[in-house]
Amino acid sequence: NAIFGVGLNRDVTGINAQVIGEINKSGAYVFSVDAPSGINCTTGRIQGAAVKAAETITFGYNKTGLALEPGRSHAGHVTVADIGFIKEGFERFLSVGGSDSHIVYEIDDADLRNLPRRNPGADKGKCGKVLIVAGSRTMGGAAVLSAEAALRSGCGLVKVFTHENNRDTLLKNVVESIPVTYNDNVEELADLCQWADCIIAGPGISTDDNAKAIMGIILDYIGNKDIVSENRYVVMDADGLNLLARLHAERSADYRLNSNVIITPHVGEAARLLNTSIDDVKENLVFSAVSLAKEYGCTALLKDAASVITDGSSTYINSSGNPGMATAGSGDVLTGIVAGTICMFKDNNTAYYAALASYIHGKAGDKAKDIYGVTGMKAWDIAEAVSYVLKDIG
């Protein structure tokens, strides 16, 4: 079909919508030219009605709307036809369409080759030290999942700062981790922050007084420590983001971060951070992710069926993963993978490393799906599958 092209900017109605409906009901093997008619090629959204193609032949470059859902599902298998555009340096460039000049790249298997190999003379202290600040009095699973994923992703040491209620569960499930527990006094966290190469802050910490004190220490660390020049990182997720959104709204703390701080919101958390609606975030994921990065001065990993990762300048879309990853704890696994992946590198290309971690997360999810199926897989299966993904690349 070739009813509408990449410039479609209005809803499909009337006879055109009827024709698209008949195409979708026909049972025919459908090819789309440049884009499935009715798909917004910038955002991937359905403009009223859209053709569901088995294959799409697009021209010059792939389009962001064919990499993001639901455009990705409607496009089927995508082939990029060469029509003479410059390719060198833009092999995985995604055209955003319209007047937006933002450059977007798609992460794929070729990027896994950029993961560094471990030095034969390495020791655990030089392979990356991750501090996981996660878990609360009644929520311990997030700390366990993040710790397992970080260790599977290649870091050398993991300390977990968590409530004392979680100590036994942590040691039973991730015996290699080093628990540092608290009850009502979290002041020890400030010294621990100085030890880490990468800090995970937020999974399962709740939003109680302890959690507020924890986030205050993390924000003080970010504000007082030049983590960019020292190649240190902070990955902020879950309750950490909810507290950050509250501080942002109240203007009661210094909420400006930096490029080595990676926030990992799902669309609901992103809506709170941007003080907008979930529908507005989903309407244009690339724009929303860029807005997050610029608003907070950080790197944003906006989680969705196809996640968008950006520092406001360099932007990537992750192409791996499957619907089985929509399960409790999957985001906690991602934070661990981000921390473990970043520890492999020694420079500040943070957005790319976060995008690479997102791709590893999706590949691990695909491995878990092969073993357990889409319905039966769970977050722990994803964490364990990370080692198989990394093993496959040597």
Keywords:
15 helices, 15 strands, alpha/beta, 394 residues
Structure description:
The chain is an alpha/beta fold. The protein is 40% helix and 15% strand. It has 15 helices and 15 strands. The protein has helices spanning 14-25, 64-67, 71-75, 109-112, 141-152, 167-173, 189-195, 209-224, 239-250, 267-274, 278-283, 285-296, 330-342, 350-376, 379-392, and strands at residues 31-33, 55-59, 62-63, 77-81, 93-95, 104-107, 129-133, 157-163, 178-182, 198-201, 233-236, 261-263, 299-302, 308-310, 315-318. The strands form two sheets. The chain has a twelve-stranded mixed β-sheet with strand order 3-5-6-15-14-13-12-11-10-7-8-9, sandwiched between helices. A three-stranded parallel β-sheet has the order 1-2-4, with no helix packed on it. Helix 13 runs antiparallel to helix 14 (350-376). It starts with 13 loop residues before the first helix and ends with a helix.
